[in-house]
Amino acid sequence: MDHLTRHLKILSEDIGSRSIYEPDKLEAAALYIESELESAGMHVLRQEYEAHGVPTANLVARTPNWTGDGPVLVLGAHYDTVQGTPGADDNASAVAVLIETARKVVEAAPEKSANLLFVAFSTEEPPCFNTDLMGSRIFVQRSKQMGLKIGGALVLEMVGYFSDEQGSQSLPEGLDLGIPDVGNFIALVGDEQSGELAAKTHQAFDESGAKLPAHPLVVPDSGDILAGLIRLSDNASFWDAGIPALMITDTAFLRNPNYHGATDTMDTLNVDAMKKLVNALAFTLREWES
Questions:
Q1: Which helix (H) or strand (E) holds 277?
Q2: Is the preceding omega at residue 86 within 30 degrees of 0, hence cis?
Q3: What Cα–Cα distance (Å) separates residue 196 from each residue in 191, 232, 238, 246?
Q4: Are strands 245-249 and 186-190 parallel, antiparallel or unpaired?
Q5: Strands 72-78 and 150-157
Q6: What is the DSSP letter of 90?
Q7: Closest C-alpha to 151, from 209, 211, 194
Q8: Which among 183, 271, 268 is positioned nearest to 6, based on CA atoms?
Q9: What is the DSSP code (8-state) at residue 257?
Q10: 226-273 per-position pLDDT tens digit
Q11: CB count in 10 Å sphere of residue 97
């Protein structure tokens, strides 16, 4: 069993539903992610806080040669789920890719990781969604308090569901977003301040040789005109703090019919496409440091 498959199995099947309403399972997920990031060569800091009276933590992983002396790039993903769902795509897929990208960066080019942070956020889902108890909001707030200069963030949100069937990609009615109707690509979603980050990331994906189609989607201002589509994850926490950020996604409910449901299981995911995403991200992160 390869690493990505093992992460998916442990998070979505062995642990399963992992929400703030299920603190033991949420903590089990945190302990697993912490252990895997450490085995990948990371130094992991627990950024602890309470949400609705439940202790939880963001997991902030630094590479062995971390200095943080330049603008920092964050690769992040939330690890909680909607209660009662296995959350294979939402968001075990993103956590698995986060861990394996960290592993690949350290193994392949440890000297190019001094300003990279890998962060697993807690409490992205309800009842904390869009409140100050979102793990990503707490991370951004505390980072500012610490004087950490975040130059950009790549937020992984549902990255495992792909289809080559015509019409498998839904499009918002009445909006021409310039994306195809075949759901075999990754979307790079940014707000107005994130345009340069989107362009650089798209170029890096193309140059990586990963052969994973990527489509940038940059919207005006802070994405308010499409809030119901593109402000539904941790990327909004960075946007609202004036930090360029991209949501890297399979487009969630615009493609995956299992969104927030009991059928969001690992057998519906494309691990080969996720491996390509790991390769594209590792190349992109190394380019950030170049």
A1: helix 271-289
A2: no
A3: 10, 22, 15, 10
A4: antiparallel
A5: parallel
A6: I
A7: 194
A8: 271
A9: T
A10: 666 778 899 999 999 999 999 999 999 999 999 999 999 999 999 999
A11: 25
In the DSSP assignment, the letter for residue 88 is I
Region for residue 209 given its phi and psi (left: phi exceeds 0; alpha: psi -120 to 50; beta: otherwise): left
Place of tokens 């089990």: 28
Q: DSSP assignment of 5-49, as one string?
A: HHHHIIIIIII----TT-HHHHHHHHHHHHHHHHHTT-EEEEEEE
As a whole number of angstroms, the distance between CA 139 and CA 160 comes to: 25
Cα three-residue angle 281-197-116, rounded to 5 degrees: 50
Structure-token pair, residue 124: 């992205």
pLDDT higher than threshold 60 for residue 283: yes
Superfamily of domain 3-289: Zn peptidases (3.40.630.10)
Q: What tens digit of pLDDT does each residue of 117-137 get?
A: 999 999 999 999 999 999 999
247: tokens are 């949501």
Cβ-contact 63, 57 below 8 angstroms: no
Residue 113: closest CA among 61, 65, 75: 65
Count Cβ atoms within 10 A of the Cβ of residue 107 and give its class: 0-12 exposed, 13-18 middle, 19 or more buried. exposed
Please state the pTM of the whole predicted model: 0.96
Residue 40 and residue 35: Cα distance in Å, rounded?
A: 9
Strand 214-218: give its sheet, edge to edge: 43-51, 54-62, 116-121, 72-78, 150-157, 245-249, 186-190, 214-218
Q: Is 164 exposed, middle or buried (0-12, 13-18, 19+ CB in 10 A)?
A: exposed
CA distance 182 to 166: 5
